[in-house]
């Protein structure tokens, strides 16, 4: 474990806490893409298949449980909770995310570290996570003004993988056997997708203005 | 060292 990875995990955790805060405090999920949340739940469920068979550390197991439980809780809130589900922008959240799932699975069948059940699903979860934010970014552009908590949520979500890139660079130089090309390249793509969001987030912070993405 | 299949990252 290095400081970059720990900071990345904490940033990821903060993004989830900010989203839970938004939903709990405002009893609303306006501006949040249910499709992106469903994709994240799928990412965690397919990445942490070794949750009960493999053990790395208490920290690793606890964080996996938190990520799985929180992503499922958010999907439940947006689908089932009688008050929250009413504020879901169903007619704006129309990204066909099934294509993202199919593309990631096909790529995982072609590009993997080892042709084994868990490795294929691990690669699938890495590819899917890289593009899972797309429905959310499209929804932000369509819904015009973005409330603060939603903006912070997307910012921390993008920042966490950027910290992981620093972690991979660090491990590349310190861990001689380290080879994680699938996660590295995928992480770079994932972080690049946030580039324009980061720009508009910075502008809104600098001008102390409402976050606004161009349509 | 990092072995293939041992994913120690989240």
UniProtKB/TrEMBL annotation, chain A:
Chief location of this protein within or outside the cell: endoplasmic reticulum
InterPro entries reported for this sequence: ER_ret_rcpt
Transmembrane spans: 49-77, 98-115, 121-140, 152-173, 179-202
Cellular component terms (Gene Ontology): endoplasmic reticulum membrane
Recorded topology in the membrane: Multi-pass membrane protein
Superkingdom of the source species: Eukaryota
Family statement drawn from the similarity comment of this UniProt entry: Belongs to the ERD2 family.
Name this polypeptide is given: ER lumen protein-retaining receptor A
Species whose genome carries this gene: Momordica charantia
The encoding gene: LOC111012481
């Amino acid at each position: 474990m290095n400081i970059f990875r720990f900071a990345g995990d904490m940033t990821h955790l903060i993004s989830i806490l900010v989203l839970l805060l938004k939903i709990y405090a405002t009893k609303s999920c306006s501006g949040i893409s249910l499709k992106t949340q469903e994709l994240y739940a799928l990412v965690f469920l397919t990445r942490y298949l070794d949750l009960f068979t493999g053990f790395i550390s208490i920290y690793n197991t606890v964080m996996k449980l938190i990520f799985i439980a929180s992503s499922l809780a958010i999907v439940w809130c947006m689908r089932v909770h009688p008050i929250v589900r009413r504020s879901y922008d169903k007619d704006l959240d129309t990204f066909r995310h099934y294509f993202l799932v199919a593309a990631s699975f096909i790529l995982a069948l072609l590009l993997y570290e080892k042709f084994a059940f868990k490795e294929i699903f691990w690669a699938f979860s890495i590819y899917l996570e890289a593009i899972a934010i797309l429905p959310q970014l499209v929804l932000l552009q369509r819904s015009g003004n973005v409330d603060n908590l939603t903006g912070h949520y997307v910012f921390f979500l993008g920042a966490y993988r950027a910290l992981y890139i620093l972690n991979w660079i660090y491990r590349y130089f310190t861990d001689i056997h380290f080879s994680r090309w699938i996660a590295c390249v995928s992480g770079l793509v994932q972080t690049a997708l946030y580039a324009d969001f980061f720009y508009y987030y910075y502008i809104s912070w600098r001008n102390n203005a409402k976050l606004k993405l161009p349509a | 060292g990092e072995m293939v299949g041992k994913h120690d990252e989240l």
